[in-house]
Amino acid sequence: METTDLDIQVKTLPESPGVYQYYDKDDRILYVGKAKNLKKRVSSYFNKQHDSHRIGVMVKKIKNIKHIVVDSEMDALLLENNLIKKHQPRFNIMLRDDKTYPWLCIKNERFPRVFLTRQVIKDGSEYYGPYPSVRTVKTLMGLIKGLYQLRTCNYDLSQAKIDQGKYKVCLEYHLGNCKGPCEDYQNEEDYLKQIEAIRNIVKGNLKDSLKDFREQMHDLAEEMRYEEAEKVKRKINTLEKYQSKSTVVNPRISNVDVFSIVSDEGYGYVNFLQLSHGAIIRSHTIEMKKKLDETDKELLELGITEIRQRFESKSPEIYVPFEVEAGEYVKVSVPKLGDKKAIVDLSTRNAKYFRMERFKQMKIVDPDRHTNRLMAQMKEDLRLSEEPRHIECFDNSNIQGSNPVAACVVFKNGKPSKKDYRKFNIKTVEGPDDFASMEEVVYRRYRRLLEEDEPLPHLVIVDGGKGQLSSGVKALERLGLRGRIPIIGIAKRLEELFYPGDQYPLYLDKKTETLKIIQQLRNEAHRFGITFHRNKRSKNAIGTELEEITGIGEKTSIELLQHFRSITKVKKASLKELEDVIGVSKANLIYTHYHTQDET
Predict the structure, then answer these.
(1) Nearest 5°: phi and psi at 138?
(2) Which keywords are on file for this protein (predicted)?
(3) Quick one: which of 36, 124, 177, 328 could link to 172 by a disulfide (CB 3.0–4.6 Å)?
(4) Is CATH 3.30.830.10 what the domain over 383-535 is classified as, yes or no?
């Protein structure tokens, strides 16, 4: 076999931590990755058959490899993140930002204003957030305004302009909401004490503010200024109430970042909670679109790096659901119980809710996009040649061979199409023979579709393992449809899917939407079949007594039961009541049968 330039490049890579970059024939960057061992990681792309279609496509396009060696895996992770942002390669994870979330801003100016904003401007101002909703940050702003008297005007309050008397106090001063720094009624030192107290509140540290207010209250009370002391007491109550709502974990848990991840086949959702003095002071979730087969560990490591960089977090410890690489200066903890475990679980719940909201938004804004994505995923997962827009699933129902029936449920675009459901009475099989019953119903179903020139499904599923699957295949073969309609069998264990001629089952990831749809199909077929079977069994059991009367058949029995609702009421009915339902001759037969029995 001839050695290519690519083979030589792979063989000569160093066995060191670093970042590798794949390029196509036009020198366009395809993918950026990091590795603890560059040679081992890059070789893995070329030394095995890939299950993922996307990886296979990418590997075929690679014509050149570049690499950068770094000191540690953490350095590689940081460099990888920066290169992905800069080049946005086609096959890399895509970070979806949520810049529309609100922030609380302490403006970089003399006598700083504090306000809500959605724009982060790098002018030296302090930004806290982003907050999960406007209501959250408005509640915080309401608390701050209730406790401290801050200016809201946008004047340039330089000392020179104040001394020149350029400004006059406004209505806010007269309402008691501002102390009038514009006319030098409040000095800068006093104002900045308020700003420092606000910083502590936003960070979750309410202890210092509560201490200051209590000292103020006692001083005012000693001076017999009781009305002012009462106002300060109300502020203390407000702050304590806010603290009780904010404290979600043990107050001793401080200066910690919490990360968790929830993922599906297409996306990862990384949630970040920042804790200070037992209170959550920041919550943020990012959506990461998978391009290859990234693991949860890879996604979470990239998410942690991105979020800590973005918010300039210096927390020395992080809590995560499983072990990750976060750098030599960060302590990584995986809590197993108690308050620490509870906060990781809370983070996971936030990630799940974010994912659910994304799906709901997608369905509202672009319902077809969700369906198209699901169909494409099912096609890939089930190794089909076309998207399974129309799926039919069969299930047999019988109890010890009595009243054997079968059900066929139909899903279109991943959703039940109940008007297309069909029920079958087993006609040609004696006794409990699931294999023969399956062959009969599959044959009858598709013979009819062919006769009526109706569209055939893109996928047929039979409930059962290899035996039921073989029966379904035989039925399709008799109709000349084998190979035209894909057919698979679901074994008792739901994650096992059998294909014709394949000795080994296919196992799907339990988290995939494909498996969830197949489970839904199977459950719906089982429910529909069982309901039909029970109804038939009940009718047979009730109808048998009436049908034992000579001259009374199934049709007459059903008419009587529909009208009188029970056998007891039929027995008690007068001759005239019976005649009104089934006519004179049959009414006489039933009336005579029951009343003769009563007399004897």
Answers:
(1) -70, -35
(2) Coiled coil, Cytoplasm, DNA damage, DNA excision, DNA repair, Excision nuclease, SOS response
(3) 177
(4) no
Residue 4 has pLDDT above 50, yes or no: yes
Give me the percent of the chain exceeding a pLDDT of 90: 2
pLDDT band, very low/low/confident/very high, at 516 (cuts 50, 70, 90): confident
- Would you state the pLDDT for residue 98? 45
Cα dihedral 129, 133, 139, 141 in deg (nearest 10):
40
On whether the CB atoms of residues 197 and 215 are closer than 8 A, the answer is no
CB 446 within 8 A of CB 422: no
CA 519 to centroid of chain Cα atoms: 18
- Mapping DSSP onto H, E and C, the string for 419-455 reads HHCEEEECCCCCCCCHHHHHHHHHHHHHHHHHHCCCC
Choose the CATH number for 549-596 among 1.10.10.60, 3.50.50.60, 3.40.50.2020, 1.10.150.20: 1.10.150.20
At residue 391, the pLDDT reads 92
> Cα(445)–Cα(423) distance, rounded to whole angstroms?
10
Amino acid, res. 561: L
User: What span, in angstroms and rounded, lies between the C-alpha atoms of 357 and 349?
Assistant: 12
With beta carbons less than 8 A apart as the criterion, state whether 287 and 299 touch: no
User: What is the 3-class SS of 240-293, one letter each residue?
Assistant: HHHHHHHECCCCCCCCEEEEEEEECCCEEEEEEEEEECCEEEEEEEEEEECCCC
Angle at 547 between CA 545 and CA 436, to 5 degrees: 100
DSSP 103: E
Q: What CATH number does the domain located at 5-87 have?
A: 3.40.1440.10
Which of 123-137, 215-229, 584-598 is the most confident on average?
Answer: 215-229
Q: 399 pLDDT exceeds 60?
A: no
